Amino acid sequence: MPSAHITFDQTGDKIAGRIRKMRPSAVRNLFAAAVRPDIISLSGGMPDVSLLPASAVRKATRAAVEDERAVALQYGGTDGRLETRQVVCGLMRDLGVRCKPDEVMLTTGAQSALDLIAKTFIDPGDIILAEGPTYLGALQAFSAYEPDVRCIPFDDEGMRMNLLEAELERIGKDNPRLKFCYVIPNFQNPGGVTMVPERRKRLLELSREYGFLVVEDDPYGRLRYDGGHMIPLKALDSRVIYLGTISKVFAPGLRTGWIVAPRDVLARINLAKQGTDLCGSSFDQIVVEHYFTDTPWEKTLQKFLDVYRERRDAMLGALDEFFPPEATWTHPDGGLFVWVTLPDYVDTGSMLGAALDAGVTYVPGDSFFPDGVTGRNCMRINFSYETPENIIEAVRRLAKVIEERLELYRIFIAAGAIKAPDGAEASEHSPSRANSDGFAPDGQPA
Ligand SMILES: Cc1ncc(COP(=O)(O)O)c(C=O)c1O
Fold first, then answer.
1. Which H or E run contains 241?
2. Distance CA 145, CA 124 (A)
3. pTM to 2 decimals?
4. Domain carrying residue 275
5. Ligand 1 binding pocket mutation candidate from 247, 258, 285, 336 (most atoms within 8 A of CB)
6. Do 221 and 167 lie in a common domain?
7. Total structural domains in the chain?
8. pLDDT tens-digit series, residues 349-408
C-alpha cells in the first residue's frame, strides 16, 4: 500500500505549474555565502541597523511589551492599527502626499504589498510594465501569478518614456490585459537612478491615455545624499498605488510596510490580504508607531544618511581607482546600490564562483530581468552594509576577478576562439558599448 505520507522529494508532480516556473532569489542564495568571515558582501540590500540607538529601540519596544501588551499580542484588523496608519499619514505628508488612515493598509513589509497587489490584479498572461532591470523581489512576487512582464529600459533620468510609449503602442489603448506599470522612481533597485520630474508627469499622462495603473514602490526616497527631494507620483495623481516601508529607515526585521491607495482599491486588496495573513503583526506595528512618535528618528535618519553617503563615496572612489576601463557604472544620489556594466561577453553569473573564492559577493545582473538572460554582463553592488575600508577592499578584489576574466576573453578573442562582440577589440582597453553612466546608446542598460 502506498503511504499517505508524502515527503518533499515525492511531491514533484503535485507542485503547481506556476511555482515550478519560479526562480529562487539570487540575493537569498547569497545570504549563506555572505556570512562567511572571509567574505565581504556587496550582495545584500540591508541597512546597517547597528546605527540605531539602543535607547530608541528600547523605548519603542517597551511600549509594545509593557504598555500595550494586550493589544500587541492579539490579532488586529486586516488593514492594520489605526494609530500606526495615522503615523504613516504623517510620514506621507512629509513627502508631499495627503492621505487619510482609511487610504492606508499596513503590510508585512513592502514585499507582501507587492504580492498582494499581484494577487489582486494579475491573471495569467496579463501585461505588467516595469523598469528593466527591476527589483528582483517584485519579479518573484509577480511571477507567482504568471504575468507577461515587459521591461522598459532606463537611463540616468529613469524609465525612458519614448520606449514606454513604443511598447504601449504595441499593446494598444485600453487593452484589458494591461494592468499596471511598476516603478521605483527614487534610487532604483538595482539601478540607483532616479526618475526626473518631467518623466514622472509623462508616465501619469500615459497611464490615463492608455488605461493602466501605476504602482510606485518607494523604499529609498528618504535615503538621499545629494540633491533635492522629488515629488512622489502619488502626490501628482491620487489613483497611484504607493508602497512604503520602514525597512530602510528603521528596521527591516519589524516587517512593516504600507500601501496608500484609493479606498475602492484597498477594499479589494483587503480581501486578498485576509486569505494571506488575516492581519499583520500588532506587536511590530506598535513598535513602529512609538519609534516614529516618541524617539528622535529624524536625527537617527540623518546618521544613516551621513554614514551611507561616506560608504557610497568610498565605493565610487574605489570603482574609479580599481575597475578596468571597460566597466561602467551608475552614480546614485541616494539609496543603496550601484549598477555596474561590463562588456557584453562577460557573464557575471559564471564569474561569481571566482568572486567568492576572492572573498567578495555581488548580485549577477540577470536576476533583475524576468527572462533571466538579459543583464548577464551586469551586476548590482551594495554600499550600505560594509565599512568604507571593507568596501574599498571588496571593490579591489572584484576588480582583480574582472580583470582576470577580461584577460581570458582577450586571449580567446586574439586566438579567434570566440568572435569579438560589437565594439570589443582584443586590445588591452577595449571600449565598452556603454557610456559613462552604464547605458548603451539605445538606453538599454548595457
Ligand atoms: C524596491 C524594493 N521594494 C520592496 C522591497 C521590500 O521591502 P520590505 O523590507 O519592506 O519588504 C525592497 C527591499 O529591498 C526593495 O528594494
1. strand 241-245
2. 6
3. 0.91
4. 73-294
5. 247
6. yes
7. 2
8. 999 999 999 999 999 999 999 998 999 999 999 999 999 999 999 999 999 999 999 998
